[in-house]
Each structure stands twice: as structure tokens, then as C-alpha cells.
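Team,

Forwarding the record for the chain on the shared tracking sheet. I've put the sequence and predicted structure together so nobody has to dig through attachments.
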Amino acid sequence: MNRSPAKILSLAIACVLAAIGQAQEPPDLNSLLSNSPFGSAPSAGGPTKADNPVEFRGVFAEGGEYFFNLYIAANTRSEWLGLDETYDEKLTVKTYDADKQQLTVDYQGKTLTLTLGSAKRIITAAAPSNPPPATAQSANPSVQPGPAMSDQERLSKIADEIRRRRALRQQALQKNQ
């Protein structure tokens, strides 16, 4: 099956957006002390094996065809596979129940039923409460925002300002001659 890079990128973006939409409440930030988003130091015994050898991390439908993002813990790698597709002769996607968001796969001769995992939400720290930088309006107190005006009034004021500046320029040129 030939997939273009743009198609794969759109699949990844759709999964990330779907996962973000599923998160409900913000996590407790104190949990970051024990569970760093940057991972933990490697243990002396080597990498630990995940509870599940395969994780169902995303789904995307295009033109009536489903694609699934599966994380294979043994390879520490994710792959996008369609129905009845096989990866590395060990993993084959069998069926998908869209209502239950459950995927049935055959992994190393065993049938596994996987449920779509929810995304881990990472919240960044709030911005410091410094005052915003000065803008042109706040630097010049004589310029105050006025009431809302129609496009015709706004264009008329612009035209008046252009005429005023042209007149000032003409006066400056006449003084210099």
C-alpha cells in the first residue's frame, strides 16, 4: 500500500487532535514530581516491558478506510496499519468496532482486543503576571480608541488624514525653496 507523506502527516495530526479532545480534566501537577514527562533515568536492569505488548493509540478514517496507530512495546515503535494489514509478520489488524473504539489484532499468534487509549495531558506553567509591553496606544496617551465606526467613516477619516499629510508636505517643500 503506497501512502504519501502528506497522507501520513494528516493521519498523525488527526489522531493528536482526537486525543486532545478526549481529555476531560486537568491533571494534578504534583504528579510531575514522581512521573516526569521527560522520562526517568534508565534502570540497571535495562528497559522495562510494558503491561501490554501492543497499544492502540489512534484511529483515522479516510474515504471509508480506517487506519490505526499501534505502538509495539517490543520494538518501542508505532506503526499505522489498515484493516487486514500485517507488520513485521507478527502483528495483523483483524477487526474494528467504531462504537466501542475497540480493535482486534493478532499478535504473535494471540488474539488481542485493544481499546483506544486516552492521551496524557501535559499542561505548561502559566505565564508570569508581568504587565504587557507598551503598545503604540499605551505609549501615547493622546491616542485613545474611539467608538466603533462603519467602513465608510473609517475610509473617509483615512482619506482626510492623507490630504492633511500631503498639505503639510507641500508647506514644508515651499518653505525650503
